[in-house]
Amino acid sequence: MRTVAVVQARMGSNRFPGKVMCDLAGRPLIDWVLSRVMLSALVDRTVLATTDSHLDDALALYAAGLGVAVYRGDENDVLGRVASAADEAGAEWVVRVCADSPFVDPGEID
Predict the structure, then answer these.
(1) Which of 96, 46, 50, 92 is nearest to 73 (CA)?
(2) Please, which pLDDT band fits residue 41 given cuts at 50, 70 and 90?
(3) What is the model's pTM?
(4) Helical (H) or strand (E) element with 46
(5) Domain 3-109 carries which CATH code?
(6) Residue 14: is its pLDDT beyond 90?
(7) What's the rounded Cα separation, in Å, for the pair 63 and 48?
(8) pLDDT band at 106 (very low <50, low <70, confident <90, very high)
(9) For range 38-58, the mean pLDDT
(10) Would you list the domain boundaries of the chain?
(11) Residue 12 to residues 9, 17, 28, 86, 104, Cα–Cα distance (Å)
């Protein structure tokens, strides 16, 4: 079984734009989320699903720099981005993770 964690993130939040790249104890919020997800023993691959907006370029580059696969899709189709990211990664099982959850528990994922 191929388990893929799809972390959905974008910079264009209405209430707190750019929050996924905001500093939290010396690291961007997205760094905490991705590193915690990658601690899961059962996740075979982690993918960042973001939009194709230029606002998300820095986010996509940051995740890619961590070795995380990046899927970019329609800004107005969250479900489509997550589903397409999972499909491209060959997922049989999908774990959807919101990018504003820096304390996501790898044990809970497993």
Answers:
(1) 50
(2) very high
(3) 0.94
(4) strand 45-51
(5) 3.90.550.10
(6) no
(7) 7
(8) very high
(9) 98
(10) 3-109
(11) 9, 5, 16, 22, 22
